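User: For my dataset I need records formatted as: sequence, then structure tokens, nothing else. Please produce one.
Assistant:
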Amino acid sequence: MEAYSADQQPAHLRVSVTFHVAPDKAQEMYNRFAGDMEAAVSRLITPRMNQEVKVVFGQYTAQKAISARGQLNVDAAKALTDAISYDPVFAIEGVQIEDIAFSSEYIRSVEARMQAEVEVQRQQQTLAQEKIKAEIAVTQATGRANSVRAEAQAQADAIVLKGNAEAQAIKAKADALASNANLIALTQAEKWNGQLPTTMLPNGAVPFLNVGGH
């Protein structure tokens, strides 16, 4: 049969129906159709099958009709069973939409769409890879910057500590000199090169020499 999907795609369907005569309707079928099974099927099943399958197929988009074939068969079987329930000579066992053939134009459009989707996925993967590379580069750069910053901070801290230590040493020495006059003389002696001045003032004393008994 020919049918249209929900998105108006024409398709050729090959459908098979499995059924049996209801046990309590066997005598009625023979009485009404003189035992002619084909006549009974043509009268009770075929017209409604064509109608109900088209209706059910029209509720599916072309893509869903292909991807959800099992559910499509279930829905078609239920619709046909309901359609002949008013005259239940036959019991429907199942409906199988064995083949769905869309137009060549639609097939090409599906192939083009699939190719486009593959390309989009490829680009997304490439973008994701580039994003990961960028994040790695940022992490590495941040690590290097933190390392340089830590080294600079350590050097600055060392300079401060050294300066503080020198300042404390100078202060301690100054305090000691200020509180002990003999230490001042000792410091002067430590710095004397051992040479006497070549010129001396009258009544001048020799530097650093104090021979008093005190």
